[in-house]
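Subject: Predicted fold for Yeast cell wall synthesis Kre9/Knh1-like N-terminal domain-containing protein, 155 residues

User T.R. writes:
Posting the sequence so we have a shared reference for the thread.
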Amino acid sequence: PAPGTIYYEGSSCIIQWNSDTTGTWKNMTIDLMSGPNLSMTKVTTVATGLDGSDASLTPFNWTCPSVTPCSAIYFYQIYDSSTQDSPSWTGRFTIASPHGASIPPPNATQPNGEAIPWGFGALASNTTSIPLPPSATAKNDTNPTTATSSLAAAS
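User M.O. replies:
I've generated the structure tokens; pasting them so everyone works from the same file.
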């Protein structure tokens, strides 16, 4: 997926990549992620053991989970499980409610100032709702790391 793509909870989410012609990506893992660029968090594992060189496996379809919040804060991290080197990422996309409801990303810019909206997401079944008092604000700490990418994730 690319920025602007909207998927719906409970519906098919499509992941497409350019198949690996080098034969390196024989044991590919796809994780659903959220968070800022330098402190990503895994929401859930989508698939493991995929042969990234097998063109018949792309596009890959799976059922979008129920998440919180429904927003344009989700992306995929794709890497070869054998080496865990050189992960690749898609652009951020929206997972909306089955009826299309979503909220804007909670953060308009990355912690380093880049104009890439983001937020932290989770599976709805793994969260509990605890109301904050009206005067409270939520703060997410970041732990910067660096990462590079070599596999071209198409969408």
